[in-house]
Amino acid sequence: MEISPTFARLVVELNKAAQPFQSSIVLKTDHRSIDVKSILGLTHSILTSKSFQLEIHGPDEEEAKKKMVQVFHDFHVPVQVN
User: Fold this and answer.
1) Residue 1 — pLDDT band, cuts 50, 70, 90?
2) What CATH number should be reported for the domain whose range is 5-81?
């Protein structure tokens, strides 16, 4: 399966955006839940899914939510946040 440059950038940007936060950032997809700070798991989850939901919990969760939603928005990928 070929990975487009845009897809690869989305994975890298999501992973990079999540790293500074202390909060737990979990991406729930059609098939699984994955820690966004895990680039390997993130790659597989995004590649095989069509719907995305973020669950963010921790001391800096509000800031993390804003940042993660912005990354999805920048790549025109819809996401729900809980």
Assistant:
1) very low
2) 3.30.1340.10
